[in-house]
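dude i think i finally got it to work??
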Amino acid sequence: MELRRLGDSEIEVSEVSLGSWLTYSGGIEREQTEACTRRAFEVGINFFDTSNVYGTGRAEEAWGEILSGYERDSYVLATKVFFPMSESDSGLSAEQIRKQLDASLRRLRTDYVDLYQCHRFDVETPIEETMEALTEAVESGKVREIGFSEWTNEQIQAALAVEGTVKLVSSQPQYNMIWRAPEAELFPLCSANGIGNIVWSPLAQGVLTGKYEPGREPPEDSRAASDEMSFAIDRYMDDAVLSAVQRLRPVADEAGLTMVQMALAWVLRRDEVSSAIIGASRPEQVDQNVAASGVELSDDTLAAIDEALAGVTVEGPRLAGFAREGVKHR
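look at this
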């Protein structure tokens, strides 16, 4: 497993990391969660990403129990704040950041997180208040570094401009062969400001594995067939997209790669990417994903990928789900 630096911080993360969004928040059983997490350690994954809102705390609790069996300095732990934890608890006010961080630390059974991320931008709270509260969290020793997920460039620049506060070092955008939106504006801004990208959905919710075929029902044991885990996959379950993905099979075969290896290697080809966050419901899926570490795609393979996916890729900036434009100042 190869390591990459997280932006201009001192943190080094495995270029393939393990997430817990749809899986360890309740999508799979506790035994599977533990088996996948332990397998991740065995194959060299050191970076684990979660959020307080995943399963309304259940994902953090599961990892708090499992990860407590490992030396704390042997892994990099990231969580997030923003989405509602109750009718009165949401957003990025100073009060909420303090309250939600402490709650996350209790569930995770740790004194600190390596990376604390704003899950979306809070347009109702002055950016100065948010950045000052995050700085307080770092200075208290409860957080090592801070980041964000799915902010607009205007919002990122506003945060970077707040004087006397800790600098953002990470961005978490959706990015894969189909969803290429970050390439146009986000990646250049991040690169210019020492911000690394830890990308989510690098396999397009599993669609880029090729397991879903146009005109056919999804496999019974797949994410698309799960009531708990299927809601985020709809954008990719289009026959035109699924047909294009099937055209990738001969490209992968020609390159001597699996579909999973090729999809992850495609994401990791970018220097702006620090890590690709994968989801796994079985230990063997962890193995399949980490096999992409260190793989380099040839120019011919990259061109063939573009040809196969012509007409179905998403290009240019896009506003993520639940994201809002604008910045509030004091």
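The mean pLDDT is 92.
im so relieved honestly
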